[in-house]
Amino acid sequence: MAENEAKSGGFLTNIVLEIVQSPLNIALVCLIGVLVYKIVKSRQDVPISRPPEPTLPKLKKRDFTVEELKKYDGTQEDGRVLVAVNGTVYDVTRGKHFYGPGGPYAAFGGRDASRGLATFSVSAKTDEYDDLSDLNTMEMDSVREWEAQFKEKYDVVGKLLKPGEQATSYSDDEEEETPSAAGDKSKDD
Description:
alpha+beta; 4 strands; four-stranded mixed beta sheet
């Protein structure tokens, strides 16, 4: 038994001697140490936070045609970004780093994102009104789930008008959560 302990002590000594006697091995050990240090240090670094975007005044509630919505893609002077989901238009300017220029979902900025959200395709976009009538039940359920998330997180600023549909007149004191008669009618269609 003492012989095994002597051999194991000798084994470790031999490894250390092998490393120390060769300049190449010393260089490799140093390189490994530097790499381990960098990996550990990078995991401890605090991520750099972005400076807060200047807050824009709340957008007055109104309805948008597809053409009017395109203007709000984040490239205009104020940088406001609007996205339509299932006929409702949301001010997603707070999420500009996602929906604004250069963001991963920039294709949705100033557009109706419903089809893209339903089909999990960021590139799915159209320049015309999309009635979503060809989506299957699962895809429409997905759109409704996304709509619920948008309602929770972003301000509703109006609705997306169908071709030929008249804009709803919103009063200044109307509460956002109170749907107008025209809004109720469009949801039943």
